[in-house]
Specification:
The protein is mainly alpha-helical and 495 residues long. The protein has three domains: 161 residues, Zincin-like (2-Layer Sandwich), CATH 3.30.2010.30; 126 residues, no CATH class; 70 residues. Helix content is 68%, strand content 5%. The chain is built from 21 helices and five strands. It has a five-stranded mixed β-sheet. The longest helix has 42 residues. The termini are far apart.
């Protein structure tokens, strides 16, 4: 739940005493229960809502907020793709985005929220819905407005991956982590630094307790962000995502951490405390780039799924290149450029892999067309391309293509020999070559070559019959001439 904007951090804690915070926490928990158990309440005024659809969202808005809905429609799909890239996971769509036009319209559906005015947005995983209270966003920057959506989508994705079993603290930590840099970050770091120096940090076990997390937001929100940043920076985003998914089959966060990191949770917590000063001293600025995870497209490349890898890498590059620069933060700039370079190199590999796949496909198509010389050339070209990628998985297939094509070439040679023998009237040799060619073409399933071989054999038979007929005719004619000559030629006189 995204609850605390810039003004909230600046002034709310000066106005709220401990009892007020406790009361708000109770209200918040009650609201969550109502969101879960009474989903029909949010639709009580459905006849008042207008609807705008995008590729991944159904945006519900009051008639007076058509322009605002159009603004959201212009960026929510991009954020969906961004989050899908970060998490390597796509939640089901469409997602409902409900824009409440006034506080009263929101309170009418959620009456207990009157006593907790800090709610900007929240997500309902079970209903696949994100809710934004528009008046709360009036003083936000455009990036903060987008961060509201990033934050709530992260909640939905994390809940989906963990079967809604990841605890409150880690949920809030990852939802903040995926936000882009905004003025809020510096304020959170200041609050975290104060909690650190005053020894007010929460034990990780408190992340299980909603009362504590939402009852002490000035500590819990910055702290959970730092904990997630630590885990991702030190162990990688893929490992954190693994922790999220393992949470679905774990008895609690300790078990999930132990299984995901093979490190005792207490040791991880101690490592975080030791790491925290470097984070507070400026490390927080570059973390999102240095720890940006490219392991999923790398896995796709390793599996030979080059087209899917290209799609993921293009999305990753688009996101990395669209991030605003942080003035004076050379470490963050360097981290981003290094990650962009890595993604571009992987993208090149994915493109080379697809080129190899295309050549292999052309070799197969040429084999089906019985263009044997082309098959041999293409199979060798594809083999070399795969070899450059260090991908031997297609070697057997390409070798089979080449061997089959070589048999086809030999059959063609036999057919040509048969035709040559036939031209020189060497019928026996011609017939033998034609029959061998026909047998090989038959085994190859090459009907064209098979029929051509039969044509040669039929031609040989026809020619042999014709020659036989000619010889018989010549013999008969010769015999007739001989007989005829006996009647008309004079017998030699005897002297």
């Amino acid at each position: 739940m995204r609850t605390f904007d810039q003004q909230f951090y600046a002034s709310t804690f000066q106005r709220f005493n401990a009892s007020t915070l406790q009361r708000c926490c109770i209200i918040l928990l009650t609201l969550m229960l109502l969101f879960t158990l009474l989903p029909s309440m949010a639709l009580a005024q459905s006849e008042d809502w207008q609807e705008e659809t995008t590729s991944n969202f159904v945006i519900l808005y009051a008639p007076t907020d058509a322009d605002t809905a159009g603004e959201y429609a212009g960026f929510v799909d991009d954020i969906y793709e961004e989050m899908a890239t970060v998490f390597s996971h796509r939640v089901k769509t469409p997602i409902t985005l409900r824009l409440y036009p006034t506080f009263e319209s929101y309170y009418e559906v959620n009456p207990l929220a009157r006593e907790m005015p800090g709610i900007v947005a929240h997500a309902d995983f079970r209903r696949n819905e994100v809710i934004v209270v528009l008046p709360q966003t009036e003083n936000q920057t455009p990036e903060q407005v987008k961060n509201n959506i990033r934050h709530e989508l992260a909640h939905i994705i994390a809940a989906d991956l963990s079967a809604n079993r990841m605890n409150t603290g880690f949920q809030e930590g990852i939802a903040q982590y995926v936000e882009q840099v905004s003025p809020e970050l510096e304020q959170k770091i200041a609050l975290l630094n104060r909690a650190y120096t005053q020894n007010q940090l929460l034990p990780w076990s408190d992340f299980d307790d909603r009362d504590v997390v939402y009852g002490q937001p000035e500590i819990s929100y910055p702290q959970t962000l730092s904990v997630v940043s630590f885990l991702i920076e030190q162990y990688g985003f893929a490992q954190f995502r693994n922790f999220v998914t393992i949470s679905a089959q774990s008895s609690g966060y300790r078990s999930a951490l132990d299984r995901a990191y093979s490190v005792a949770p207490a040791d991880l917590e101690a490592q975080w405390i030791e790491w925290l000063p470097s984070y507070l001293n400026g490390g927080y600025r570059g973390n999102i780039f240095a720890s940006f995870d490219l392991s999923y497209p790398q896995q796709l490349l390793s599996a030979g799924r080059y087209g899917e890898a290209q799609t993921e890498l293009e999305s990753a590059l688009e996101w990395l290149q669209s991030q605003p620069e942080i003035e004076g933060d050379d470490e963050a700039l360097q981290a981003r450029q290094e990650k962009i370079t890595e993604a571009q190199q992987l993208l090149t590999v994915s493109q080379q892999g697809q080129q190899a796949e295309q050549v292999a496909t052309e070799a197969y198509e040429s084999l089906q067309a019985h263009n044997y010389d082309r098959v041999v050339a293409l199979a060798e070209q594809a083999r070399q391309l795969y070899e450059a990628l260090n991908d031997p998985r297609q070697n057997e297939v390409l070798q089979a293509y080449a061997e089959r094509a070589e048999r086809g070439r030999q059959a063609n040679t036999l057919l040509q020999e048969a035709q040559g023998y036939a031209s020189s009237l060497r019928f026996n040799e011609a017939r033998e070559s034609a029959e061998m060619a026909a047998a090989e073409f038959s085994r190859l399933g090459d009907t064209t070559g098979f029929e051509s071989s039969l044509d040669v054999r039929r031609s040989l038979d026809s020619n042999k019959r014709l020659i036989g007929l000619i010889l018989v005719t010549v013999g008969i004619v010769g015999a007739g001439i001989s007989l005829f000559s006996q009647f008309f030629l004079r017998k030699a006189e005897v002297w």
